[in-house]
């Protein structure tokens, strides 16, 4: 009979990969796993648990918050607060950073940036949603950790991952030594290793973008979409279009089958929509660790300077060859910093 390996066992086993590890990161990943199970329980019975619908509040991005956004945010912050390994939480749902000053967290070394519920527009319609997390070690050594500890580049991440609440619930993460996926077995309440050493195919035939905004995309992006739709059997085109409205779900599919997910810049959102610190950087770290690629169309996501916690970035992420092709089209038809970047774009009246 195939032996199972739980997330907890795997984390402890892999601790040996990090010579100076004292178990703090292991405990932090454990805490994230616990909160994920609690959120999963509510997501699974959302229709019954009176947790669907709007919360009536708006977050820093000006987006209406869903009840589940708030619930998931509370669960992750509470698990990180009582776990004792986290000193600051940066959350999509909190305007300001959450500084954890309680007894157990006095020596906490880690900063956690989190998108508690990704794909919020899908909550009420039972389409897969997720959670995205990114972990940094604080740089400052004296006193309370500061905003400077938060504004680190993606290359400084210690660990990153996501949870997808879909037909099954999975937790996929990296600590910089490859990517592993765990499936929640509800009968034992454990995440069990189901996808060891995940590798993203270099090539794919699925592209993922909200084509409803086509008129607002720069020429380079329009040209790449057209490239995906051309008939050419040699290169397996036309590609298939898939867009769920949940970045986690679209990227999980690309990780397993190959593909590219794009949320470009537009004339009215030159930096796109997605947030660098708790959406783009963690997914970029994970995808690169699985052999894929992530850029803002011009530069590597992980090397982008982080100026503020809720900063946005355009993103082109997925199978390496597909991201290279998209970058090639953008460089050719929308060279960076030139007016041509948005030529042909119909601006919003
Ligand atoms: O509806 P749009 O503009 O295509 O945006 C969908 C994208 O926005 C997101 O929902 C943003 O994430 P949140 O739901 O966490 O705000 C992504 O998951 C998704 O890919
Ligand atoms: Mg999100
Ligand atoms: Mg969210």
Automatic annotation (TrEMBL):
Its cofactor is Mg(2+). Keywords: Carbohydrate metabolism, Cytoplasm, Hydrolase, Magnesium, Metal-binding. It is an enzyme of class 3 (hydrolase). SUPFAM superfamilies: Carbohydrate phosphatase. Mg(2+) 2 binds at residues 115, 118, 279. Its main location: cytoplasm. Residues 5-196 form the Fructose-1-6-bisphosphatase class I N-terminal domain. Substrate binds at residues 118-121, 210, 243, 273. Its EC number is 3.1.3.11. Coiled coil: none annotated. InterPro entries: FBPase_C_dom, FBPase_class-1, FBPase_N, FBPtase, Fructose_bisphosphatase_AS. It is found in: Cytoplasm. It catalyses: beta-D-fructose 1,6-bisphosphate + H2O = beta-D-fructose 6-phosphate + phosphate. Homotetramer. Belongs to the FBPase class 1 family. This is Fructose-1,6-bisphosphatase class 1.
């Amino acid at each position: 009979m195939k032996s199972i390996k739980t997330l907890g066992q795997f984390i402890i086993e892999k601790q040996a990969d990090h010579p100076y590890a004292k178990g703090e990161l292991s405990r932090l990943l454990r805490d994230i796993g616990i909160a994920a199970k609690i959120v999963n329980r509510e997501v699974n019975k959302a229709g019954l648990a009176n947790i669907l619908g709007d919360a009536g509040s708006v977050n820093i991005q000006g987006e209406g918050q869903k009840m589940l956004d708030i619930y998931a945010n509370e669960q992750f912050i509470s698990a990180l607060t009582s776990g004792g390994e986290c000193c600051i939480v940066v959350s999509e749902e909190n305007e300001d950073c959450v500084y954890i000053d309680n007894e157990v967290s006095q020596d906490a070394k880690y900063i956690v940036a989190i998108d508690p519920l990704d794909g919020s527009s899908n909550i009420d319609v039972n389409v897969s949603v997720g959670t995205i997390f990114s972990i940094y070690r604080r740089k400052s050594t004296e006193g309370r950790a500061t905003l400077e500890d938060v504004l680190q580049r993606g290359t400084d991440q210690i660990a990153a991952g996501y949870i997808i609440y879909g037909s099954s619930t999975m937790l996929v993460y990296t600590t910089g030594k490859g990517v592993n996926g765990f499936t929640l077995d509800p009968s034992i309440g454990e995440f069990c290793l189901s996808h060891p050493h995940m590798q993203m195919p270099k090539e794919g035939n699925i592209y993922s973008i909200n084509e409803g905004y086509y008129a607002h995309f720069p020429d380079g992006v329009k040209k790449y979409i057209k490239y995906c739709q051309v008939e050419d059997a040699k290169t397996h085109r036309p590609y298939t279009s898939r867009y769920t409205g949940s970045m986690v779900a679209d990227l999980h599919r690309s990780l397993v089958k190959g593909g590219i997910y794009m949320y470009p810049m537009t004339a009215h959102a030159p930096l796109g929509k997605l947030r660098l610190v708790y959406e783009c950087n963690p997914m970029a770290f994970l995808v690169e660790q699985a052999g894929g690629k992530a850029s803002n169309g011009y530069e590597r996501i992980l090397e982008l300077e982080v100026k503020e916690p809720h900063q946005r970035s355009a993103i082109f992420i997925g199978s390496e060859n597909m991201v290279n092709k998209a970058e090639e089209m953008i460089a050719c038809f929308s060279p960076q910093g030139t007016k041509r970047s948005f030529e042909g774009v119909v601006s919003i009246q």
